[in-house]
Amino acid sequence: MKQRVNIQYSVALDEMPAEISRRLRAADVAMQKLASEDTKTLSQIKEANIFSLPTLEAIENTRSDLGALDHILNDAAQIINGFIQLQVAPTEAPSPLIEENEEDSSTAPFPPKWNELTKQLENFKNKSTDEISE
């Protein structure tokens, strides 16, 4: 089977139908190849030659073509699934992940545990500085 590389790119929302159509056309071409070439090759193998390298090669080629078709259809299905999820997703504004600490705004961007750790670290630094100066 040929090596595959995952890539990611963006497409404008209004270009999605054309992108899916392109992939479905590629799937159709792959299916036509399977129907015409691969099945013909497999059906022409004589029983007397079943256990041969050409038979094994024909099977591997067919499996590779089936795998390529599966990848094309999987890509199309994932794009459609992502589009549907985008359409049904709630359109609420995202809620803030971190609540601001009203007591100490200097550490506000950090979650509460980080605020406490920051305070402890400052106390430790102050103690160390006091001990060094004494």
Report on the architecture of this protein.
With 134 residues, the chain is mainly α. The protein folds into 2 domains: 13-88; 97-134, no CATH class. The protein is built from 3 helices and no strands. Helix 1 runs antiparallel to helix 2. It is elongated. The protein starts with 15 loop residues before the first helix and ends with a helix. The mean pLDDT is 81.
* Count of domain modules: 2
Main structural class: mainly alpha
User: Strand tally, please?
Assistant: 0
How many helices? The count is: 3
Oligomer: single chain
Q: H/E element string?
A: HHH
Rounded mean pLDDT is 81
First-to-last CA distance:
73 Å
Helix coverage percent: 55-70%
The profile of the biggest β sheet is: none
What is the radius of gyration computed over CA atoms, rounded to a whole number of angstroms?
30 Å
The geometry reads as elongated
Give the low-confidence spans.
none
Residue fraction in strands: under 5%
Salient structural properties:
single chain, mainly alpha, 64% helix, 2 domains, 134 residues, elongated
Short description:
By secondary structure, this protein is mainly α.
Write the layout of secondary structure elements.
Blueprint: H1 16-43, H2 53-88, H3 112-133
Helix pairs in contact: 1-2
